[in-house]
Inverse folding.
C-alpha cells in the first residue's frame, strides 16, 4: 500500500511537470509545424532570473512572477530572432536557427554568469515534507501536482472557450484557411510563443524547486523530456502531449523502482529505446491530431 | 556511371586541390601548430562530408552522427591501446578483448565498421519517420548513445578520460581518408540510391508514388554516413589520444552541423567549403579567446565566445541564404555553367 501511494505521487508529480514541458513545446509545433530547440533555454533564463533576484528582498512570489515574465519575453524573442525571418523558408533552416539561438543563450550564460551551478532562492515550503498514511511526501511534489492540474484545466478551458484559443486551434488545423478568415497570423504565432514561454517559466520554478540550483545546461533534460513526450503522444495533439508526459513519467518511475542498481544508470537508454519501439508501432504517436494543411 | 561527368570531375579536381594545398602548406612553413590545425580540418572534413551523405541526400536533419563518431573512437581504442597499458586505461575490459591488439589502421577501419553496424541495427525503424519526428528521434538516439558511452565502464572507462591510444593520425593519413570520403560522397550522390533519395527529398510523395522504397533508401544512406562518421571518430581518437564521452555530445554536434549548414547541406562542395571556412574561423577565434584570457582584460574567464560567433554566423547564413553557400549545385557544374553562358553570348 505504501509503495503504491509513493509510486502514484511520484508518477503524478513527475508527470505533471513533464506534461507542462511537453505542452509548451507542442503549442508552437502544433501551429507552426516547427520544433523549437531553444525551448530548454526558456527554462534556463527563468532560473537565472530567480538567481539574479536573489537577495533583492522581494517576496518569493513576486520573484517567481518576474521569472515567468522573463521566460515569456524570451519566448517571444525566440520567435523574432529564430523563427519569423526564416519561417517561410525550409524546415531545416528553422531547426538550425532555433538550435543556434539556444546555443547563443547557453553560451551567454556561460560567458556572463558562470559555468558552475548557482543557487536559487526557494521558499521553505519547497523543502518541507508531509506524512500521509505512513509515507513521507515532499511538499514540492504536491505543489507540482496541484499546479499542473490547475494549469492543464485552465489551459483546456482557454483553448475551448476564448476567441484566442479557438483561433489558435483553427490555425493549428488549417493555417492558410484561418488566415483567409481574418485571423492575424503574426499575433497567433507570437501568442503561441508567449504561452510556450509561460509554461517554460512555470516548469522552471517546479523543476528548479527539485534541484535547487541553475546551470547553463539545465534546459537540456526538460527539452528532451518534452521531445520524447510529444513524439510518444503525437506531435500535433495537445492531449497527446499531456498523455505522453504522464506516460513517460510512469515509465521512468517504474524503471526507477524496478531496475537493479547496476542497470539504473542506463535508465535513459532504456526509456529512449522504448520510444523507438512505440514509434515503430505508431509512427504518428499515440493520439493522432487533426489533419493538417501546409505551413504558411 | 554519372560520376564521370565534366562538372563532377571539375568539382573533384577543385575539392581535392584544396585538400592538397592543406597538406602542402604546413610542410612549407614547418609549423607544428599549422599541422595540428590542418589535421583537425581534415578530420572535420571526414565528419562533415560523412554527415552530408545522409543529410544532403535525404533532406533529414540528423543529430545522431556524433554518437557514431564516438562508437568509432571507442571501438578503435579498445582494440588498439597497447596490451601492457590496458590494465591502467581500461581495467574492466572483457577478457575476450583484453588480449587482442590490432594495428591502429585496422582499428580505425573496424571502428568505422562497428559504427555502421550499430547504425544498421538501430536506424531501420527510424527511417520511416520524416520531418520533425525524425529529427527528434535522431536527437534521442544521440542521447542514448551518449548515456551508454558514459556508463559502460568496461569499454569506455565511464565518464572518465580514456587515454593511451597510439598516435597514428598523421596529416597525410587524415587527408587521404578525407579525399576518399569526398570521392565516395560524390559517387554516392550520383549513384542510383543517391538519385532516388534526392528525389524523395524534393518530393516525398511523388518519389514514393514512382516506386522508391524511401525507408530502405534512407537506411542505406544512414549506414554509409555512420560508417564514415565512425572512421572519422577513430581518426580523431588516434589524433587526440585521450578523450572522454563529453567529446561526443551536443557541442561537437553543433560545430559539425554548423559547418555543413553554413557551407550548404545539399552539396559536397558546400560540406567541404563550410568545413574549411568554419574550422579556420574557429581556430582564429579560439586563439583570440586564449589571448583574452591570458591578458586578463576581463575579470573572469572568457568561455563560449567562439560558439556564440558560430551561432550568429549560422543564423546569418540562414537569413540570407537558407540553403547555405552552395545550395544546390556543385562548384564544378557552377563554373562550367558560367563558362558556357559566356561562350554563348
Amino acid at each position: 500500500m505504501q509503495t503504491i501511494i509513493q509510486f502514484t505521487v511520484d508518477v503524478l508529480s513527475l508527470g505533471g511537470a513533464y506534461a507542462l514541458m511537453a505542452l509548451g513545446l507542442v503549442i508552437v509545433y502544433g501551429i507552426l509545424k516547427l520544433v523549437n530547440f531553444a525551448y530548454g533555454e526558456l527554462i534556463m533564463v527563468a532560473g537565472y532570473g530567480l538567481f539574479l533576484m536573489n537577495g533583492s528582498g522581494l517576496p518569493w512570489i513576486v520573484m517567481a512572477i518576474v521569472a515567468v515574465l522573463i521566460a515569456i519575453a524570451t519566448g517571444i524573442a525566440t520567435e523574432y530572432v529564430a523563427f519569423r525571418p526564416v519561417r517561410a523558408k525550409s524546415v531545416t533552416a528553422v531547426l538550425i536557427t532555433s538550435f543556434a539561438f539556444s546555443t547563443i543563450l547557453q553560451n551567454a550564460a556561460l560567458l556572463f554568469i558562470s559555468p558552475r551551478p548557482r543557487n536559487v532562492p526557494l521558499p521553505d515550503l519547497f523543502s518541507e515534507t508531509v506524512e500521509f498514511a505512513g509515507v513521507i511526501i515532499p511538499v514540492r511534489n504536491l505543489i507540482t501536482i496541484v499546479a499542473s492540474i490547475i494549469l492543464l484545466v485552465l489551459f483546456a478551458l482557454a483553448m475551448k472557450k476564448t476567441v484566442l484559443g479557438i483561433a489558435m486551434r483553427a490555425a493549428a488545423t488549417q493555417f492558410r484557411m484561418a488566415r483567409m478568415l481574418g485571423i492575424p497570423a503574426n499575433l497567433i504565432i507570437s501568442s503561441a510563443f508567449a504561452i510556450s514561454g509561460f509554461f517554460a517559466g512555470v516548469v522552471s520554478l517546479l523543476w528548479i524547486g527539485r534541484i535547487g540550483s541553475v546551470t547553463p545546461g539545465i534546459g537540456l533534460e526538460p527539452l528532451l523530456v518534452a521531445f520524447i513526450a510529444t513524439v510518444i503522444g503525437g506531435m500535433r495533439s495537445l492531449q497527446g502531449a499531456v498523455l505522453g508526459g504522464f506516460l513517460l513519467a510512469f515509465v521512468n518511475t517504474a524503471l526507477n523502482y524496478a531496475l537493479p542498481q547496476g542497470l539504473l544508470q542506463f535508465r535513459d537508454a532504456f526509456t529512449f529505446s522504448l520510444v523507438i519501439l512505440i514509434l515503430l508501432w505508431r509512427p504518428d504517436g499515440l493520439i493522432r491530431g487533426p489533419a493538417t494543411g501546409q505551413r504558411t | 556511371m554519372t560520376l564521370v561527368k565534366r562538372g563532377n570531375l571539375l568539382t573533384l579536381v577543385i575539392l581535392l586541390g584544396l585538400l592538397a594545398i592543406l597538406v602542402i602548406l604546413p610542410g612549407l612553413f614547418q609549423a607544428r601548430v599549422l599541422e595540428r590545425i590542418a589535421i583537425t580540418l581534415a578530420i572535420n572534413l571526414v565528419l562533415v562530408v560523412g554527415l552530408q551523405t545522409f543529410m544532403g541526400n535525404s533532406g533529414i536533419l540528423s543529430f545522431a552522427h556524433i554518437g557514431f563518431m564516438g562508437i568509432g573512437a571507442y571501438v578503435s581504442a579498445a582494440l588498439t591501446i597497447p596490451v601492457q597499458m590496458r590494465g591502467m586505461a581500461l581495467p574492466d575490459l572483457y577478457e575476450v578483448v583484453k588480449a587482442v591488439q590490432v594495428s591502429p589502421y585496422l582499428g580505425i577501419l573496424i571502428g568505422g565498421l562497428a559504427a555502421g553496424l550499430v547504425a544498421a541495427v538501430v536506424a531501420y525503424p527510424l527511417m520511416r519517420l520524416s520531418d520533425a519526428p525524425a529529427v527528434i528521434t535522431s536527437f534521442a538516439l544521440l542521447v542514448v548513445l551518449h548515456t551508454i558511452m558514459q556508463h559502460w565502464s568496461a569499454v569506455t572507462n565511464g565518464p572518465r578520460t580514456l587515454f593511451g591510444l597510439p598516435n597514428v593520425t598523421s596529416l597525410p593519413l587524415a587527408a587521404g581518408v578525407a579525399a576518399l570520403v569526398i570521392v565516395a560522397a560524390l559517387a554516392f550522390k550520383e549513384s542510383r540510391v543517391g538519385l532516388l533519395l534526392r528525389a524523395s527529398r524534393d518530393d516525398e510523395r511523388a518519389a514514393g508514388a514512382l516506386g522508391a522504397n524511401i525507408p530502405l533508401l534512407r537506411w542505406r544512406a544512414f549506414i554509409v554516413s555512420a560508417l564514415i562518421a565512425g572512421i572519422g571518430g577513430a581518426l580523431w581518437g588516434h589524433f587526440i589520444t585521450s578523450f572522454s564521452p563529453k567529446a561526443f555530445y551536443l557541442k561537437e554536434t553543433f560545430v559539425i552541423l554548423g559547418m555543413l549548414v553554413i557551407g550548404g547541406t545539399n552539396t559536397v562542395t558546400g560540406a567541404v567549403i563550410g568545413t574549411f571556412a568554419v574550422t579556420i574561423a574557429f581556430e582564429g577565434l579560439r586563439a583570440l579567446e586564449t589571448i583574452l584570457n591570458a591578458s586578463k582584460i576581463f575579470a573572469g574567464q572568457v568561455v563560449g565566445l567562439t560558439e556564440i560567433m558560430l551561432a550568429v554566423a549560422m543564423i546569418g547564413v540562414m537569413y540570407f541564404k537558407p540553403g547555405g553557400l552552395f545550395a544546390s549545385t556543385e562548384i564544378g557544374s557552377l563554373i562550367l555553367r558560367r563558362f558556357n553562358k559566356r561562350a554563348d553570348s
